[in-house]
Amino acid sequence: MKVNRSSIILLVLMGISGGTSLAAQSVAEEFDSLHFRSIGPATMSGRISDLAVYEANPAIYYAATAHSGLWKTTSGGALFEPLFQDEGLIALGDVAISQTDPDLVWVGAGESNNRQTTSWGGGVYKSTDGGQTFDHMGLEDSRHINRILIDPRNSEVVLVAATGPLFGSGGDRGVFKTTNGGESWTKVLEVDDDTGANALVRSSTNSNTLYASTYQRRRNACCMNGGGPGSGVWKSVDGGDNWSRVTGGGFPDGPLGRIEVDVYGRDDQVVYALVEGPRVGGNGPGVRDQDEDEEVENLTGLYRSQDG
Q1: Which one of 16-30, 88-102, 106-120 scores highest in mean pLDDT?
Q2: Can you tell me the distance from the alpha carbon of 213 to that of 277, in angstroms, rounded to the nearest whole number?
Q3: CATH code of the domain occupying 48-190
Q4: Closest CA to 97 of 73, 135, 126, 132
């Protein structure tokens, strides 16, 4: 039987068309199981802002994250339980646990980094049931909180280092203190509307001795001015009610940037400060001009005091 070439071509095309139709149907069914979900603009939950360990049982500790709330482990990190997931603004800058009561936990909302992706928060929160529930305790205009200290002698006394808004002035900035578990707050250290508090540390041998650092900063859409005359180190010898600025004795003059402070655990006369010194040239409060032929000393570095 003689087969017409046109008939063969027609049969081939029909087969291809049928196969294509079946393939398209299969792909369409695969897409039916896909659903759109939000992946931005800022979901970098991997940053860990702070850890708080219950020293009597180090298997119990909390991890505060930049974008995904608080996480708790009672197994030394083998398993974690997500907490602080329903408070709205769940970006955290700090977590503190009472060393006399592991169920008493404070968190400061809003991480204190300086990137455009930094997320803000709504103040300080307290839990009395190991993080299962939290009560909002104020300072909602702080936006970013970098440190919380619970007084080891009286857990009703708490100090908070509030960095303040990143993209503007004002707000709750500086060191705040409560003596009634957060029912009311007193601002005990204030510099100006552009300067907040960064570090806050207590001597382990004398609970009345504290050190804090202040940080002048401002970010806009493109740039960051991270420093100025407001940045510095401060000391209190009365539990945080009054503060004096640390000057001289080898500590660098301003304008300075971000400063971290810590005290040696066995001797509160030994104090360390990690200082961001001024840049030379350019613009911004943390920058100074350089004269022609001037030799500029790099003030950025680690400083140590052995006399408190």
Answers
A1: 88-102
A2: 14
A3: 2.130.10.10
A4: 126
| The two structure tokens encoding residue 228 | 């100025």
* Res. 146: pLDDT tops 70: yes
pLDDT of 116 reads 77
Give dist(CA 220, CA 168) in Å, integer. 8
Predicted structure pTM score? 0.81
Q: 257 is written with which tokens?
A: 């940037």
Q: Where are the domains of the chain?
A: 48-190
Q: Work out the burial of residue 181: count CB atoms within 10 Å of its CB; fewer than 13 is exposed, 13-18 middle, 19 or more buried.
A: middle
Mean pLDDT over each residue of the chain, to the nearest integer: 86
- pLDDT tens-place string over residues 61-99: 999 998 889 999 999 999 999 999 988 888 999 999 999
